[in-house]
Amino acid sequence: MNPLNLKEIEQYVEEHIGDFHRKRIEGLTNLKLTKVLRKKNPYLFKAKHLLTAEQIIRSQTDAFISSNEETIFGDWLEGLAIFINQKVYAGRKSTTKGIDLEFDRDGLRYIVNIKSGPNWGNSSQIEKMKLDFKSAARTLRTSNSKLQVVAVNGCCYGKDNNPDKGDYFKYCGQSFWAFISGDEDLFIKIIEPLGHKPKTNNQEFDQLYASVINLFVKEFTINYCHPNGAINWEKLVRFNSGR
After folding, report:
1. What class, spelled out in words, does domain 91-196 have in CATH?
2. Residue 82 and residue 110: Cα distance in Å, rounded?
3. How many CB atoms lie within 10 A of CB 162?
4. Does 108 have pLDDT greater than 90?
């Protein structure tokens, strides 16, 4: 085990946080109104009594962007976790299906599936993860039958007060970052570097967001509003859900 060097983590974040912002901007640049309208529930917006094109566009687009950013940032945090573990425990990104990180500690081989938060999957997705753990353990033991393999589902934020799941352990938030680094306070220490150049990054995104909203409102008004400006709910629902 090597001592954790916070300066290396800060440098990594500063050098790579731009990747997250670049991908979120790319996602917004490539976003189409038809994709947004097909993904969201039109009945919900009628039930919420949304009456203007801008209300619907902002509500649907914001929901889509939020979901997309959660995915992008989850992938980014996975890279940060692997980097930190590599520095401390000589861990490595796994090439095994369903496994993100492998490392050795105290005579044990840890195989880790990294997720953003604790409520990431339904029962079938969790069962698939458990099967991936079992398959990976079998593969690892083909070259060393005495190898002790421990499976871990790591979550970058949140809590789980019952980490022992029988087939695997689930470490969330502070427990996860301490598990991969040996530092109980790492979950706090990584917050500050994440704000590197936030104003510059967000200004570009905000300008693009405003343009996208304006274009979507214009397109929506042309295609899904009556001549008097009222929303054509029948046409909108047919586009979203019709055969």
Report:
1. alpha beta
2. 13
3. 6
4. yes
Two tokens, residue 114: 């990294």
Mean pLDDT of 20-49: 90
Domain ranges across the chain: 1-89+197-243, 91-196
In this structure, of 7-11, 110-114, 192-196, the range with the lowest mean pLDDT score is 192-196
* pLDDT (average), residues 77-101: 94
pLDDT surpasses 70 at 197 = no
Once rounded to an integer, what is the mean pLDDT over residues 212-223?
Answer: 96
Other C-beta atoms within 10 Å of 107: how many?
7
Q: Which fold has domain 1-89+197-243?
A: type ii restriction endonuclease, domain 1 (1.10.3250)
